[in-house]
Amino acid sequence: MMVQNKRVRKAIITDAGFASRYLPITKTLPKAMLPLGNRPIMQFMVEECLEAGITEIIIVSTPEGKPIYEDYFHNSVIRIKKQLAAQEKIERYQSVQDILDYPSKITVITQDESLPYGNGAPVASAMRYVEGEEAFLVLYSDDVVFGSPSDAKTLVDTYDQNPQVEGVIMAQTVSPEVVNKYGIISFKKGTENVLDNIIEKPELGKAPSRLASYGRYLLKPSIFKFLNPNGTGKDGELWTVDAITQVAKQKKVLVEQTRGEWLTTGDPENYFRAHLKYVLEKEKYGAKILGWLNEFKKV
């Protein structure tokens, strides 16, 4: 039985961008509805929150994506259930029932179009849903994490042990050859886990660490002091990490390393890599894939 967490009850999951690198499919389908196996990425995000004891989830989507997410998480498709029962295949409906039985309330909203472009805009759009909370989670649906415990649970557990901090962010060690592709964490002098700054794409050999930041955060409503239309940064965009580093100048923000493995799905190539990893490790047919590749080489 899931134990409700009293300090952190809510999470914001974002999927409100144009996803132009995925066109034309994202003209119709939200990017986080792309599958890993036979479940969409967004379902993995929601289940990560459930593992952490989150009781209310706010999904921030595009206007086109809103009815799709509402249908996926709330439509019981009785027509299909009846047909499966008539065919004596009702067990296939169980995966749908599992979603309908999620203990968390799932609310889908659209991004506030008056906000500047940037990955902070979906978070700012959900402000009124979390502004009365002690703290809340933010998950970017571009970032999937395989393994246990989930990042969401790590964030919540860390905060439970350190409720005086103003935030907690996740990070993963990357090889020194690719630090120039990520936002790299710099720690406050004399500490090993207190955020000073996030250096965006540092030059090779000049990175302050090998820890890359990505879209898993525990924040307090104080973030909205900086995450607003007046807080734009590079390219005139609203960046969540800019707001986090502003908070870190005044209060303590902790850095936790993932216990799992973070993979991005932000572009088709990396999505395919994440999907392949999932299928190889989790699906019954995963063991056949290497054989299929050998077959394709012969064609």
Question: Would you give an account of this structure?
Answer:
- There is one protein chain.
- The protein has a single domain (8-166, 214-298), classed as Spore Coat Polysaccharide Biosynthesis Protein SpsA, Chain A (Alpha-Beta Complex), CATH 3.90.550.
- A hairpin with a 2-residue loop joins strand 2 (35-36) and strand 3.
- It is of the alpha/beta class and 299 residues long.
- It has helices at residues 41-51, 66-74, 78-86, 94-100, 121-125, 127-130, 151-161, 240-250, 268-282, 289-298, and strands at residues 8-15, 35-36, 39-40, 56-61, 105-110, 135-140, 143-146, 167-173, 183-187, 195-200, 211-219, 253-257, 261-264.
- Mean pLDDT is 94; it is low at 1-5.
- The strands form three sheets. Strands 1, 4, 5, 6, 8, 9, 10, 11 and 12 form a nine-stranded mixed beta sheet that branches.
Which key terms come to mind for this protein?
alpha/beta, single chain, Spore Coat Polysaccharide Biosynthesis Protein SpsA, Chain A, nine-stranded mixed β-sheet
Helical percentage: 25-40%
Please write the CATH class name: Alpha Beta
Q: How confident overall, as mean pLDDT? A: 94
Residue share in β-strands: 15-25%
Please, how many helices? Answer: 10
Morphology: globular
> How would a textbook summarize the main sheet?
9 strands, mixed
Q: What is the CATH topology classification name?
A: Spore Coat Polysaccharide Biosynthesis Protein SpsA, Chain A
Count of spatially separate domains: 1
CATH superfamily: Spore Coat Polysaccharide Biosynthesis Protein SpsA, Chain A
